[in-house]
Amino acid sequence: MNWLTNFVRPKIQALVSSQKDVPENLWVKCPECEGMLFHRDLDDNEKVCYHCNFHLAMPVLERFKNLFDDGKFKRVAVPKVNHDPLKFKDQKRYAERLKASQAKTKEEDAIIVASGQIGGCETVIAAFNFAFMGGSMGMAVGEGVVTAAKEAVKRKAALIVIPSSGGARMQEGALSLMQMPRTIIAVEKVKEQGLPYIVLLANPTTGGVSASFAMVGDIHIAEPKAMIGFAGKRVIEETIREKLPEGFQTAEYLLDHGMVDMVLARQKHNEVIGSMLAILMGKPSPAEKGKKKKNSGTETDAIANKDVAASKVAGYTASAVKKASDVNVSTPANTAELKALKKVATK
């Protein structure tokens, strides 16, 4: 046995130890279809499953690069708030939970605000970070939405909010619930200035977030198969003692029942939202700008290009027209484009 112990075993150990360690997280399992996704392919496909088209959680900064023109944006500082006003403690201190989430995400709280351009239009985005305590809404998140609204009014820019949240943050009690009316007032200030307010619903959007600012946009866009609702499906079924329909609380179900205006794949966000903002803010869309460079710039060409831009947006949903018309903008160019959009959508 000595030759096994003294010769074979050391050789095997040397062979194994010389092999390079395999990096972790090379593969990701899709929560929808359970298909295995190679991390590089998943990144190239903007965190969308290439088996079933399920949209996985996307880091906020990557989402900003995907949405803003040329991936360029500037972060907007959110004022600091009292992070643990109630000195809350359950199995763990709330202060400790916050520190753990801050260390994990490298962010102060569950919302990030940035400004830039989409389709050549000035835009402010407030996006939730679900990795930070489930994107729950506390005082800091409420302050983030208010800051984004103020920044939009200051810049005369469109406001886009991207909720991905489990609802109000229970550790802050009534102070968290107070953020619901507070954020509603903030987005109303944007609407009063005649600026577009668009909500991009990501998976999941539930609880106090869906019951407040997330469902009062001029246009509601949802990512495919996103879960959107207030209470959970099981809670509803136990309360009403009935079986809920298949696909209940999904983006597609809400689209069929008029709760959202369109379900839009992540790869098309910049293009479609940019065209929408151009129409709502009375500015030429990116497609229109390209056409003008090629054409002579005559009045006939300009009208034709507007029809092309309007048709492009209308092709995704006809129901967006009704929401878009609610925005208080009355410039002649914008009115003409909205009329063209309505005309095409009703065909």
Topology:
Blueprint: H1 2-17, E1 27-29, E2 36-38, H2 39-44, H3 60-67, E3 73-76, H4 94-105, E4 111-118, E5 121-128, H5 139-155, E6 158-162, H6 173-177, H7 179-192, E7 197-201, H8 207-210, E8 219-222, H9 233-240, H10 251-256, E9 262-263, H11 269-280, H12 286-294, H13 299-314, H14 320-324, H15 332-345
Parallel strand pairs: 5-6, 6-7, 7-8, 8-9
Antiparallel strand pairs: 1-2, 3-4, 4-5
Helix pairs in contact: 5-7, 11-13, 12-13, 13-15
Cα(first) to Cα(last) distance is 86 Å
Alpha carbon gyration radius? 24 Å
Shape: globular
CATH-level-4 superfamily name of the largest domain? 2-enoyl-CoA Hydratase, Chain A, domain 1
Q: How is the main sheet built?
A: 7 strands, mixed
CATH architecture of the largest domain: Alpha-Beta Complex
Strand order of the largest sheet: 3-4-5-6-7-8-9
What is the percentage of strand-forming residues? 5-15%
CATH class of the largest domain: Alpha Beta
Class computed from helices, strands and strand pairing: alpha/beta
Helical residue percent? 40-55%
Mean of residue pLDDT values: 83
Q: Count the domains.
A: 3
CATH fold call of the largest domain? 2-enoyl-CoA Hydratase, Chain A, domain 1
- Count of runs of 4 or more consecutive helical residues: 15
User: Which series of helices and strands comes N to C?
Assistant: HEEHHEHEEHEHHEHEHHEHHHHH
Which spans have pLDDT < 50 for at least 5 consecutive residues? Answer: 311-333, 342-347
- Number of strand elements: 9
